[in-house]
Structures are given as C-alpha cells and as structure tokens.
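Anyone able to model this chain together with MU-OXO-diiron?
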Amino acid sequence: MHNVKKLTKDLYWVGANDRRIALFEGVYSVPSGVSYNSYLLMDDKTVLLDTVDKAVNHQFFENIAHVLGNRNLDYLIINHMEPDHCAEIGSLVAKYPDIKIVCNAKIQQMIGQYFELNIPENQWQIVKEGDTLETGSHKLTFVMAPMVHWPEVMVTYDSTDKLLFSADAFGSFGAIDGNIFADEVDFDHRYMDEARRYYTNIVGKYGPQVQMLLKKAAGLDIQMICPLHGYVWRKDLGIFIDKYQKWSTYEPEIKSVLIPYASVYGNTQNAAEILAGKLAQLGVKDIKMYDTSVIHPSYIVADAFKYSHIVFASTTYNMGIFVSMETLLHDLTAHNIQNRKIAVIENGSWAPASGNLMTEIISKWKNTEIIGNRITLKSSLKQNQEEELEVLAKEIAATI
Ligand code: FEO
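re: yes, here you go
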C-alpha cells in the first residue's frame, strides 16, 4: 500500500522510512530510524528527484506507481550518488526503460562505477552549474554543491514554486512520523539534536564547502527545502539556516562546557564530576558530561560543535590515551573541529601519559586554545588537588 505525502499541488514525497536499521553508514546508531526522501513532480513531464536506499525499495515503488497512475516516468534527476539515495537507479531504469537521466558528469561517472546499466546516449542529459530543465510549468535549475557531502553532489532549484531540493544538506536522522513538514512537529525539542548529529558527523568536515552552498542559496528565493533525509522545511527556514551557518563555520552555539571523560575505575570520572560541580557553582549553565566508553562518539562530536569549551579527562592506558577517548579525539580531528577552548585532565597510576598525547592531537585543531593548567591525577584525586580543580574551573568560567 502506498504511503505518499502531497507537498504542493503537483509535488509528492514518495520516500520511505527505515526504523530497523542498525547503523547508518555502518557507523551511526539511529534509534529513531531514518527516512530516505524521494520527490515526484507531476508536471507536463513527470520528474523523480533521487531514489532511495535498497532497504525501502518496495514502499518506494508502490509510492511512485500510485502517484504516476497510468502516466510514464519521464525524468530521473540524480543529485547525489551515495547508495542510500541511488540504490534503485537500476530497478527504476528497468521499470521505466524510456526514462531520461539528468545529472552532472561526475554523477554519470559514478553511475558507471556502481552499476552496469547500458543506458543509451540519448537518454542522458548531462548538466552543469546553472543549466535548466523545463518540465511544463516548472523550471528547474541545477546548482553544483561539491563535498556536501560527496564530490558529485548538486542541488536542484525549482524557480516556479521556489523549492530547493537540497540533497544531504538540511537533512536529519530520525524517521518521518506521519507529518512531513518540520513546522508540524516540535522540531527543536525532538529533532534538532539529531539534525546536529547528522550534520556534524556526515558533513561536518566540509564546512567551507557548505558555506559555498549557503552563499549560492542566499541568492535564491527559497520557500521550501526538500532534503534527502528528515522533514521538509516550509516555515522559519532561517532557524535551520542559522544552525547551518554556525555549524559550517565551527562557531559554537552556546557558551558552556562539554566534559567527555574516560575512566576505568571511576577516579577520572570523580575529578570530572567535581570540576563540573565547581563550574556550576561559578554560574556556568547547561554543562554536559559524557562517559566516552558508554556514549558513541557521534553524539559527542555533535555536542563538540555546539559547545564553546571542552574538557577532556582521560586515564592512561597501555601508555596511551584510553581507547574510547582516543577514538573520540581522532573522530573530532576527522570532522575538522576547531575554534574551541580546551582543558585537559589526565590520570595514570605509574606513568601518566594521556595528557601529553591528548594535547598533541588537540594542538593540531585550528583556532583552538588550551586553557588552564593541566591537572594530573596519580590514580585518584587527592584532597590537596581540590584547589587545582577550583583554579581550573575559575579559568574556564572566566572565558565564558
Ligand atoms: Fe544521505 Fe550522503 O547520503
């Protein structure tokens, strides 16, 4: 049975949800599932924008068949060639053999890498920046968006209805729960954290490229954003665009302290907890702590983009950084984290080494300053070290 959602007089969401996926991209848990969005424009010509992941292909083809009725599918626009969106190109071509594929040259090359389709030359329409496709009453313009999130990515702008088909940009983890528009749900409370986790982990590394897309988008009159994951935006677009502005320039959203800690027997945790309490006494609000052995790095990466200050507290392990903290630090490096104020707490029962090793990694982050004196625990925090924590808390609070 179809599950189609009508977005405008002639545009339909024909995507589907996967609520049983264990790990998105094999890495990220998505406890609320994920949606794969595909859009079908029913103009004089019928135009499908992107396909879906193979996990939801049955629903997808039911949706398309329902909207098309007895019409044929004329065009497939491919904005992004990652398999969570392109998996059904082969099946689509098999089902609608006359379909014309609209994409850029890099996408065409990637189609050849993923599939062996033998699509005749006259069924390709290869586009570049600013090229257009007129489908009847709609005029679609193609805007290149390399590295948001792969090199071939483009977005499609419908200047008739002022719609932006934004590919991965402005997407979110989380399945679509009945409603389709972001303004129909309590997005800020239910989805913004997952939108941040999605952005920072999937696209966070590519801030400058996202900035290029935002600058191009600023020149367009956009009334609706149709991303490839999550809800469609038609109201208060500025709220989400402002988040993207901050995330892509690595500007913290709040002035407060994130404290990820790695603790084997609870002593490093104890120091982190006491520091957090002292920060609270100094008036710092919304402090957040994570045990790196319990929480997947993707959640901590997301908050690292949100918070202005981060205190990393880790025990020494095999003469290195404790494994879960080391993974987190490398993940943050990979996602290009920068522009933060950092403090470090280390622990070690015979040769504390994690402080130097953490500092070595952190010192490579752009515009990042290490503040306060490093605190070194020898197995556990001693009474006479409380003063050290007090001083560190004051130094951190003074910069907030
Ligand atoms: Fe949702 Fe980059 O794919």
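The two ends are 54 Å apart (CA to CA).
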